[in-house]
Write a structure and sequence with these properties.
The protein is of the alpha/beta class. The chain has 14 helices and 7 strands. The strands form 2 sheets. A 5-stranded mixed beta sheet has the order 4-3-2-6-7, covered by helices on one side. A two-stranded antiparallel sheet has the order 1-5. The chain starts with 5 loop residues before the first strand and ends with a helix.
Length: 371
Amino acid sequence: MLTHRFTFGLALVAGLLSVACCGQVRAADKEAAQKTEKSKADTKDEAAKESPDDAKDRYEVPDGGVKELLAFIHDTLAYRPKTREELVERQLKARPALKAAAEKITEIATDADKQLDGYNDVEGLLLMFRAADMRTASADDQKQLIDDIKTCLLANSDNPSRFAASAASSTATGLEFGGRLEQAADVYRDLGAILARSKNEELAKTGAKMEGAARRLGLQGKALEISGTLMDGSKFDWAQYRGKVVLVDFWATWCGPCRAELPNVKKNYALYHDKGFEVVGISLDQDRHALEAFLDKEQNPWTTLHDGAWDDNPVATYYGVMGIPTVILVDKEGKVVSTEARGPKLGKLLTDLLGPAEPAETEKTEGDSAK
């Protein structure tokens, strides 16, 4: 299983924490208006004298109770670094500080504390940190993590923690890209179904995508259904591709692995197109202008669909596209042959389905001249 693609689940883990940690800085309350210009100047002078080394470490976990620790977590997540030095400090200190504060809360929280706003996110944070380390965890620890995520989601099924949702998605994605497809499908299906019932629209979308990923992992030998909008605004007709071997390619212009795979797809298209090979590209770009410029430059000789960005693309959601490029190869009857048709494997599969490619015309000419 290739793992150098851009993955939705793994990005979601890092992204939720990164976005939260890079949230808008809350403006400090202004002091009472100074009565004179002298008091203003004095205040400014004192601020100028203050050394950064004298300032309190914002990542130092307080010794207070649950409310103080919850406020610390909230402020740490909301803090936006203003300089490179502050950014590096956040990258080094934010995660261990948040983890320590969350662990301390779970140790001292009473039943009443567990009803406080923000407590739900404490459990979710700890699950997310465990999910980020899942690939190095033992099989027993992985199973326990899955059980704990499910318990957490079920306990707050109407509006689960966004961090618990991130833990669910990244755990399933880690299993998928670790090659444990059967287990990944079960986790996608079970945890996705819980999230899909959420009253939070974004978390419900995550759940629907996870349910779609379970559907995608069970596609082998089944019919694929594709719909969408062509670049000129007309509707795509999947029925026209019946009788062809088709590579359905989910990609985006900003995805490095997608661009790296493009020459291989073009090469195989040139070799096998006349034998019945087609490509349908499904762009997950948000920037329509960037997509148009890329297609104008590359002149891809196949159809491209565009129905919005990754999170809003109906087909990407229905088939739970968690990483790109995601490619699905179907045979002449429209049934899925492979979901890993990349690199040399694509040419091999096309040879199996369509027979060996004819030598290029230039090779034929050179061969005739040599005789």
